[in-house]
Design a protein that fits this description.
By secondary structure, the chain is of the alpha/beta class. It contains eleven helices and eight strands. The chain has one domain (3-264): 3-Layer(aba) Sandwich (Rossmann fold).
Length: 269
């Protein structure tokens, strides 16, 4: 397993494909396998760098609280380790919050930013929902927590007839262990609760694609519109008939929109 020491933590990463580099950042409690259903299409045109955030997947647990800017510095450390100077970045949910912080840290190195099912500032609604998950993690078994979060991630149509490939991904996730640990999950929750980049995003001139599921009830389209209003070079695309985890529910639609956007903004341009 490829791992690199960034500060005091060993972080897992994986690379795949060839072409302009694309850094992929997953959301709360997730790991790089969350990208599996879009990975093949993206790897045909791009060199993918998939990172497990601290406190998730095969990366180390943190020893102290942190914020999304710290997680952005972790991901940037992986890119430095690989010798990649300029790259595209795409983040889903919490991964999108991390992508915002990373782009703010090194705006000249990020060619484009794709923000999927994410938000720029944690408001009262998100605090109520995500804060509730923090308490649930203490009271539910990990598998029960995953089941309880499913209605926030997927549409009712998806839950009625989940595709076999997603069922297989979830089974493998449960086998590996849904949570690194309860404290690890809670530290990630706390980083989400503290996220607030909306006021400073207007300084960026990075071409940005904001993707949001039409039926996302966790980060509905209003969050995407707020991000696009704050980012001078942003465009919003709504993914039809999809929920928060649109990269799992409608992976083809997500990969097609992302690849079309990246083709319009090559690194060398």
């Amino acid at each position: 397993m490829p791992r690199v020491r960034i500060g005091s933590l060993d972080l897992f990463f994986e690379t795949d494909g060839a072409g302009e580099p694309l850094l992929l950042l997953m959301g709360l409690g997730g790991e790089h396998h969350g990208w599996d259903l879009v990975r093949r299409d993206l790897a045909r045109r791009h060199r993918l760098v998939l990172v497990d955030n601290r406190d998730a997947g095969a990366s180390d647990e943190a020893a102290a609280p942190y914020v999304t800017a710290d997680m952005a510095a972790d991901a940037l450390g992986v890119m430095d380790h690989l010798g990649i100077e300029r790259f595209h970045v795409a983040g889903a949910s919490m991964g999108g919050a991390i992508a915002q912080q990373l782009t703010l840290q090194v705006p000249t190195r990020v060619a484009t930013m794709t923000l999927i099912s994410t938000w720029g500032r944690t408001d009262a609604f998100l605090r109520a929902v995500i804060g509730g998950w923090r308490r649930m993690a203490e009271r539910l078994a990990p598998e029960e927590l995953l089941a309880a979060l499913s209605p926030w991630a997927f549409t009712h149509r998806f839950l009625e007839e989940p595709p076999a490939e997603v069922v297989a991904l979830q089974a493998a996730f449960r086998e590996r262990g849904v949570l690194r640990s309860v404290p690890a999950y809670q530290r990630q929750v706390d980083a989400c609760l503290a996220h607030d980049a909306l006021g400073i995003l207007p300084i960026l001139r990075t071409p940005t694609l904001v993707l949001v599921g039409e039926d996302d009830i966790l980060t509905p389209p209003r969050y995407g519109r707020m991000l696009a209003a704050a980012l001078p070079r942003a465009e919003v695309m709504v993914v039809p008939a999809s929920g928060h985890a649109c990269f799992l529910e409608t992976p083809k639609l997500v990969s097609e929109r992302l690849l079309r956007f990246l083709s319009r903004h090559p690194i060398g341009a």
